[in-house]
Design a protein that fits this description.
By secondary structure, the chain is an alpha+beta fold. The protein has 11 helices and 14 strands. Strands 1-2-10-7-12-5-4-3 form an 8-stranded mixed β-sheet. The protein has a 4-stranded antiparallel β-sheet with strand order 6-11-8-9, with no helix packed on it. The chain has a two-stranded antiparallel sheet with strand order 13-14. Strand 8 and strand 9 form a beta hairpin. Helix 3 packs across helix 7 and helix 4 crosses helix 7. The longest helix is centred in the middle third of the chain and has 28 residues. The radius of gyration is 19 Å and the shape is globular. The chain starts with a helix and ends with a helix. The model has no long low-confidence stretch (mean pLDDT 92). It binds Gibberellin A9, 2-oxoglutaric acid and fe (ii) ion. 2-oxoglutaric acid binds next to strand 5, strand 7, strand 11 and strand 12.
Length: 346
């Protein structure tokens, strides 16, 4: 019985070629293995009106809660300013992330994710679902990064670990605040709301560091392939480089431009289920560019593994059958985009 998030991911071992990234520092042209066919959506450039931009919400705004509700319904994502996370905490972690990915490949490979593992260095977990490789390196953290950091920096891992712990603590406070607001919007009872903050209830947390090196042929490459996040929601910091896009019905791929000291929040599959489809979970992807390395820090937050997921608010029939977080993770690991459909139970 899996009790930690990393154990929950162990059931679906990957092949090494789905884990080891290309040594991007040594390639000068785009290999065929990394060349993606361009789709209609990419060639078409939609004109975006004001209503077609992902909302930026000020957490100190008296209407913040209502605006978050609307953004989750219309977009499944929003940007958040005045979020209360000290700028220094984010900057420090971005610097550590750059220091990590700048290491020689051989050093990073010391913390390579194992076939049945969930943490450490390597390609995105969704890689096996796509025929081409992504222009991307990742580093996944669940709980303490100590074991993986020690493999990379045998003697001076303390700085990295402290900065990660600090970031994680700060993110958790923000995540609990957002959970409370979102549950209030959904009209969830005081009793049910407590899981996010109660002391004997351990939420699932994970951090993914993403690195998208400059790419010689960015138009034919893919940084991170389209996916939805498995979380309740994800809080993302992107370095000041474009690339993130969200798919919006009727508008196509909409860019999420970075703004200083602004975090992106993605509604995840779990919130989509709990809200009985009232809140969207946005399909998103990352494009690369030829001039700048891009980095992002994603914090995934969700209910405990044994938490029974079933729509919490019902104005109509439930769209999903009841299943635990752990069961949902298992279905997603084998079906990716099909997981939500399978979970409807019909
Ligand atoms: C807690 C999580 C959430 C994971 C799996 C696990 C650790 C790494 C996360 C990501 C990060 C990159 C995109 C994604 C789609 C991927 O490939 O790995 C995410 C996935 C998910 O949201 O399902
Ligand atoms: O790099 C980004 O901006 C997005 C990363 C992402 O979607 C993820 O880690 O799940
Ligand atoms: Fe994502």
């Amino acid at each position: 019985m899996a009790t930690t998030l990393s154990e929950a991911y162990r059931d679906n071992p990957l092949h090494l070629h789905h884990i080891i990234p290309l040594d991007f520092s040594s390639v000068r042209t785009l290999p065929d293995s990394h060349a993606w066919p361009q789709s209609e959506d990419d060639v078409h450039h939609h004109h975006l009106g004001v209503g077609s931009r992902i909302p930026i919400i000020d957490l100190m705004d008296p209407n913040a809660m209502e605006l978050i509700g609307l953004a989750c319904e219309k977009w499944g994502a929003f940007q958040l300013k005045n979020h209360g996370i000290p700028l220094r905490v984010i900057e420090e972690f971005e610097e550590e992330t750059k220091r990590l990915f700048a290491l020689p490949t051989a050093r990073k490979m010391k913390a390579l994710r194992s076939a049945a593992g969930a943490t450490g260095y390597g390609r995105a977990r969704i890689s096996p679902f796509f025929p081409k490789h992504m222009w991307h390196e990742g580093f996944t953290i669940m709980g303490s990064p100590f074991d993986d950091a020690k493999k990379i920096w045998p003697n001076d891992h303390a700085q990295f670990c402290n900065i990660v712990d600090n970031y994680q603590k700060q993110m958790k406070v923000l995540a609990e605040k957002l959970t409370y607001m979102i549950f209030t919007i959904l009209g969830i009872s005081e009793e049910q709301k407590k899981w996010g903050s109660s002391t004997n209830y351990n939420p699932c947390e994970a951090i993914q560091l993403n690195f998208y090196p400059c790419c010689p042929e960015p138009n034919r490459a893919m940084g991170l392939a389209p996916h939805t996040d498995t979380s309740l929601f994800t809080i993302l910091h992107q370095s000041q480089t474009n690339g993130l896009q969200i798919f919006k019905q009727g508008a196509g791929w909409v860019p999420v431009h970075p703004h200083p000291n602004t975090l992106v929040v993605h509604t995840g599959d779990i919130l989509h289920i709990l809200s009985n489809k009232r809140f969207l979970c946005a399909l998103h992807r990352v494009m690369v560019n030829s001039a700048t390395n891009r980095y992002s820090l994603a914090y995934f937050y969700g209910p405990p593994l044994d938490y029974l997921l079933s729509p919490l608010v019902l104005h109509s029939l439930p769209c999903f059958r009841a299943l635990t977080v752990k069961e949902y993770i298992g279905i997603k690991d084998k079906n990716l985009g099909g997981a939500l459909t399978i979970s409807t139970g019909d």
